[in-house]
Each structure stands twice: as structure tokens, then as C-alpha cells.
Amino acid sequence: MPQRETSTAIDLDFSKGNGLVSAIAQDAGSKEVLMCAFMNKEAFEATLATGYAHYYSRSRKSLWKKGETSGHLQQVREIRVDCDQDCVLLLVEQTGAACHTGRHSCFYRRVRNPESLEYVED
Amino acid sequence: MPQRETSTAIDLDFSKGNGLVSAIAQDAGSKEVLMCAFMNKEAFEATLATGYAHYYSRSRKSLWKKGETSGHLQQVREIRVDCDQDCVLLLVEQTGAACHTGRHSCFYRRVRNPESLEYVED
Asked: Do B90 and B79 meet the contact criterion of CB atoms below 8 Å apart?
């Protein structure tokens, strides 16, 4: 098995994602998945150093601290890495809403049938 | 707000990810996050059509049905989309192990300190 899968060294694989890894934020209490974004090396290191989630915005091409302007910070309780270290899972305490629409989670719609979505009760 | 965020039409945004969206599989019962991968349009449509998770492998550059060789299928109970429709969340019933290492989840290690990982009890 590749060393990355068995190692206890942090060795994130940024190569497959053009310098980025996937980053999932999950509510540490309810286990609800709140959002999915990306991190570059700088965002990961800033998250480790501060204890607050930082991501990399593909559209703005820049680092952002989640909640920096809205106040909707994510305090990180635990960080997990997946087998091949190209994804991190953050267990967070979310202040306010994770979604910029004001909802607790970004996943507020589900597929109802192959053509349409329906809103999910919060 | 952009139409994609309020619409009840499925309109996945494959543009930011070079034809891919992120895809998270979460255990429908325990709410454990099992894995994170990617889908192209074909993988999403195959998932909708069959009720079993299909992904796109960036390394092999091909569609794969999860569990096709291992038998570790993911039966999809619900599909959610995020606000800007560049990520889908699958609530699944996992047969066997989600991770190719034989573990239920790919997230079997957590960051212990800024330099190292530790294995998590399953």
C-alpha cells in the first residue's frame, strides 16, 4: 500500500487537484455536513495554526478565513485526512450559518426526481 | 442571489472543476463521512439512473461504479446538492467497506499535532 495511506506523517497530496485538496466541514455535534470547499497548502497551515477553518477560493483565487466578514467562524475540533491524503474532514463548531445564504448547511436541497430539487426542512 | 442557488432545477456547475463536481458519501444511518471523490456528468447521471454511486477517477480518467469489483456497493438513499451546485452529498447504505484499505471510512486518521497523524478507533 502506498506510504501515504499508512503513514502517520501529514503528507497531503496537492498534486491531483492543481495545488488543492478537498475540504469538508462537518458539524462536530450533529454530524451534519455543512459545506465542501478546497484548501491549498497555505489554507491548511493557517487552519492548523489558528484553530479556525481557512479555505482557498477557486473563483477569487485567494485564501479566505471562513467567517472573516460575516462572523460565521468555524472552530475546528478535529481534522481527519482520508486514505490517499487528498481530502481533509474538519469537525467544527459552527458560529451562525455555514452557508452564505444564511442556512446552517449548504446542502439545503435534495434531488426529488431525476429532473428536480426540493428544499429540505432545516 | 444567483439562480443556481435558489432554483429547484438540477443544474450542476461542472465549470469550476474542469468538468467535475465534488461528491461526498455519508453513511445514511450513522452520519459518518465515508469518502470524498468526484463526479463528471456521466457519473452523476449513472448514479441517478441506477441508484448506486458512480464516480469519476481523476487518476484513471474514467467512470467507475463504486464496488463494481469489490462488491462494496453504495446504495443511494438521498442526494443533496450544495448552494452553488458544485458539490453533491450522497446519503448511502454502504455494503462492506467504503475505503479500499478495508476500513468502513476513508477518514481513519486524525491530526494529532501540526506534524503527525494518529489512527482513529473504528
From this structure: yes
Q: Which of B8, B101, B114 sits opposite A83 (nearest CB)?
A: B101
Cell 444511518, located at residue = B29
DSSP string, A57-102: ETTTTEEEETTTTT---EEEEEEEE-TTSSEEEEEEEE-S-SSTTS
Query: CA B104, B105, B108: angle at the middle one, nearest 5?
Result: 110
Look-up of cell digits 431525476: A114
Region for A71 from its dihedrals, namely left if φ exceeds 0, alpha if ψ lies in -120 to 50, beta otherwise:
left
Q: For residue A94, give the nearest of A35, A41, A22, A23 by alpha carbon.
A: A35
Judged by CB atoms closer than 8 Å, whether chains meet at A115 and B31 is answered as no
Q: Tell me how far apart the alpha carbons of residues B52 and B63 are, in angstroms, rounded to a whole number.
A: 13
Give per-residue pLDDT as tens, B60-111. 999 999 999 999 999 999 999 999 999 999 999 999 999 999 999 999 999 9
C-alpha cell at A55: 479555505
- Chain B residues whose CB is inside 8 A of the A21 CB are none
Cβ within 8 Å, pair B109-A8 = yes
